[in-house]
């Protein structure tokens, strides 16, 4: 009798376990997998470098000053064209070392324009620091950092700074999913990354 009950219990437990999917429970591991696998998280950060005549709205921005400090660009004052404001304007040029730094990041055909979109860093998930659930909705707090992809990225993004973000999740019939568009509750991953706060 005891043996039959034990076999029945084993069969019942195995049926329950096989009917559950890993996505049925919003765990830190599932949240980490969904966050780090999302397109928004994996998309590299790009820096758009404009050479030629630029207005004082773009120069001196902190990024351009960093590039100038590293000797990758030079800037000379220049008259503003009619369609460019506010004055003063600047003529930005890549220095020889700047040409080398840009060529190391972009294919040759993409370096012949005055608007260079340079991949500089990618995100790395550090940890899921909290999971909060209420009914079919949940919020996941996580920390992440930038990993520079090249020397320009190293100049613009510190790999030592950690950021904190919160993203919304929702439980559907096939399990938990991260909110990817306009959320009903919680925050979408793209908004969570834009609204990230440095961790002191």
Question: Could you describe the 3D structure shown?
Answer:
- The chain has 200 residues and is an alpha+beta fold.
- Helices cover 30% and strands 36% of the residues.
- It starts with a helix and ends with a strand.
- The model is unreliable at 14-19 (pLDDT under 50).
How is the secondary structure organized here?
Layout: H1 2-19, H2 28-37, H3 39-42, E1 45-50, E2 52-55, H4 62-69, E3 73-78, E4 89-94, H5 96-103, E5 115-134, E6 137-148, H6 151-156, E7 162-172, E8 175-178, H7 189-194, E9 197-198
Antiparallel strand pairs: 1-5, 2-4, 3-4, 5-6, 6-7, 7-8, 7-9
> Mean pLDDT, nearest integer?
84
The radius of gyration over CA amounts to 25 Å
Low-confidence stretches: 14-19
How would you classify the quaternary structure?
single chain
* Major sheet description: 6 strands, antiparallel
Number of strands: 9
Shape: elongated
Derived structural class: alpha+beta
Number of domains: 2
- Summarize the amount of helix as a percent range: 25-40%
Distance between the termini: 62 Å
Residue fraction in strands: 35-45%
Distinct helical segment count: 7
**H and E order:** HHHEEHEEHEEHEEHE
């Amino acid at each position: 009798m005891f043996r039959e009950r034990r076999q029945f219990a084993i069969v019942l437990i195995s049926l329950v376990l096989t009917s559950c999917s890993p996505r049925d429970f919003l765990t830190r591991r599932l949240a980490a997998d969904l966050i780090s696998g999302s397109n928004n998280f994996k998309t590299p950060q790009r820096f758009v470098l404009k050479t030629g005549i630029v207005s004082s709205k773009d120069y001196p921005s902190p990024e351009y000053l960093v590039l100038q400090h590293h000797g990758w660009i030079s800037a000379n004052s220049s008259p503003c064209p009619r369609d460019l404001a506010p004055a003063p304007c600047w003529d930005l040029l890549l220095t020889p070392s700047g040409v080398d730094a840009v060529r190391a990041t972009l294919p040759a055909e993409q370096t012949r324009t005055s608007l260079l979109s340079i991949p500089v860093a990618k995100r790395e998930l550090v940890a899921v620091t909290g999971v909060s659930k209420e009914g079919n909705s949940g919020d996941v707090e996580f920390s992440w950092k930038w990993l520079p992809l090249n020397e320009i990225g190293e100049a613009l993004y510190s790999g030592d700074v950690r950021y904190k973000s919160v993203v919304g999740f929702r439980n559907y019939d096939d399990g938990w999913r991260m909110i990817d568009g306009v959320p009903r509750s919680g925050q979408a991953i793209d908004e969570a990354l834009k609204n990230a706060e440095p961790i002191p």
